[in-house]
Amino acid sequence: MIRLTEIQAVMVGVLLAAVLVVGLALLFVGTRRLRMGTALIGENARQQAFLDSSPALVMIVRSDSRVDSSPTLGLWLGLVDQPATIDDLATADAGLDEDDFRIFSDAVTAARRAGAPFRLSLRVKRGARSLLAVGQRAPDRLNAPGGVLIWMFDASELQSRAARLGEEAEELRAAFTSLTALIEAAPMPMWYRNRELRLAMVNTAYVHAVDAANHAQVIDQQIELIEGSGMGGPLANAAIARDTGHPQTAAVPAIIKGERRMLRIHDLPLFDGGAAGFAVDIEELEQARGGLKRFADAQRAMLDRLSAGVAQFAADRSLIFCNQPFRRMFAMRPEWLADRPEFDRVLERMRESSRLPEVRDFPGWKAERREWFHAQSPEIEESWHLPGGIHLRVVAQPLPEGGLLIIFEDRTEQVQLASARDTLLRVRTAMFDNLFESLGVFASDGRLQLWNEKFRRVWDFDEDLLARHPRIDALVKAGEARLSDPRQTALISELVRSATVERKQRGGRIAFTDGRHFELTAVPLPDGNALFTMLDISDSKRIEQALRDRNEALETADRVKSAFVANMSYELRTPLTSIKGFTEMLHGGYAGQLSAAGTGYAEAILQSVTRLSTLIDDVLDLTEGDEEIPREPVDLEHIAGAAAETLAPIAAERGVVLALDVHGSAGTVRGDPRRIRQAIEHLLRFSINGLGPGGRLLLHVDGDADSARIIVSDDGPGMSQEAANHAFDRFASSAIVGPGSDPALGLGLPLAKRFVEAHGGTVTMLSQPGEGMLMTIGLPRG
């Protein structure tokens, strides 16, 4: 047996102790590592559970294109085998879409090389699945150097929902755009207020209503549509609508475009806590409402002035209005009517006053009248025959809003008048048949309505023809053979048409083949018809023809007389010229010196020749036909002065004072200066001839823009107005010429009138015995 030494035993003990310590240490480390492994296994299981429950699948693409992924990814891609490389993600009939796979592969390559992350939407060939790939370079902890970590999300439902939401958003956007355009185009002001009731949006109509430059100015300056808006004003309705959630309406006045308008403001609560509003212009509605009220008042005032009785009942059959004639007609007291009696009570009151027809079954009769309130016929009319010979025309009109309007017209007088009218018609027929004229009454359409026996006999019409009431064209066609000129049928038709259609009175004449003549007259009648009369004027026609023949004979004799006077005047000029010439030779001493008495005789002969020549010239001027008057400017001041200068010696010889007064307004006229001067001289001679020594004569000339005026006035004895009216007649009598004057001068005034009228002027005379004369010539400027 081996015996250990003490040293060896110690060394063995130490060695065993060391082994024990090492064992214990190893046991502690193993136990710790076991606990750590167990914890890691649990954490790994927990992380795996997280991954399994995650809506996304993880995939790692390594640098050599190998793929580590969940088996579920193959199911998403529709692959039979689990993809080993990136190329396995797209096969011929499964996996990713070719275009999407190309984009995905390029994105993975870029992430691997440059670390660029990506986010792609990928489509799968089979089915309608869509995938969302979110990738980045793989972290170092994944032990995949150069690899890419990719999260795959099934976005099929999200894509479908996103598409639906996109469509809904597009529809909402289109609706919002349309609604905005509608609000903007609305003709009424519209606005939106936020929670603080501040204006946040307005339309163009609002901008125009407040006379703002643009929308921004309204929002920035908070320009309110209604003046004085505040929490106590129209904004109060907006606040109530916001707080209560109920729309509010108020009618307020406003000044729009400088005009006072009545607006109805609507405030509407919105889901966001704000309030929308719009304003409707009700000015015309208010005016129409006021107009309707005024119309109703005026209508009732007018109904009070009608002779017919009017009663209006409401839908509940109560009497709401009756005019004064109704009260008088049915003896209704105002205090009884003030209680708005019912329809049946009104009828009963009428019966008590004996203002209803006598009927056996009054309740039934009353019930029938009660049905008027619901009658389908737009108008109901009856005739009531009341005691005492009173006739009432009753018209009932159901009202659209319910109720009934009844009009009571007293036709007693009309019935009496109708009876009297029938009597008058019979009298008229008897009178027509006994008149001398032929009468026919035509209606507005040209048909013959009435005629007398004389009318039928004149035209020899058949009774059957007239009984058919033919039109005027058919009537004249039937009588055309009796007219000497068939074209005169058009005259008869035109006369009747003018009286019936144009309402004008016209006349004419026709001749029959038997030599009779008729005067026609068509007169419009008040009832729209026309009265056609034919008066036999055969006798007056023959008298007229005889007078016409006599007048033509007188005109021929006057022409012969005028020609004779003219020829005689020309024939007298030859001997007068010889007498004047020989007398001037004797007066000049060619036949020897004359004695003083002989010289006086010669001068008397020359004066007589001059007067006779003047008389012959005047006669020629009167007997000559109208001559053409030259048109040249005539200075009236010069002409008047020349005429006054010519007559001045004669006036001085008779002791007459001749004065000339020419105003600057006299001017000029267009005409023959010689004739105008002769007219003035004739008037002056006439006045001088009527004046005695000491008489005064004034020649006054003035004018205006349209005409000139020449006035000759004197203070002589004058003449009667009757004589003055004939002073300008040809060959006036010596009484008109004036006492003690030369009758030859009676030709001067007719000549003056002829010369003035040839210039388009007028000449007049005013005179009274002992008041002198006033003769006026008016000449137009043109």
TrEMBL record:
Keyword Kinase among UniProt keywords: yes
Query: What's the EC number here?
Result: 2.7.13.3
Protein name as it appears in the record: histidine kinase
What keywords appear on the UniProt entry?
Kinase, Membrane, Phosphoprotein, Transferase, Transmembrane, Transmembrane helix, Two-component regulatory system
Q: Which reaction does it catalyse?
A: ATP + protein L-histidine = ADP + protein N-phospho-L-histidine
Q: What class of enzyme is it?
A: transferase
Parts of the chain that traverse the membrane: 7-29
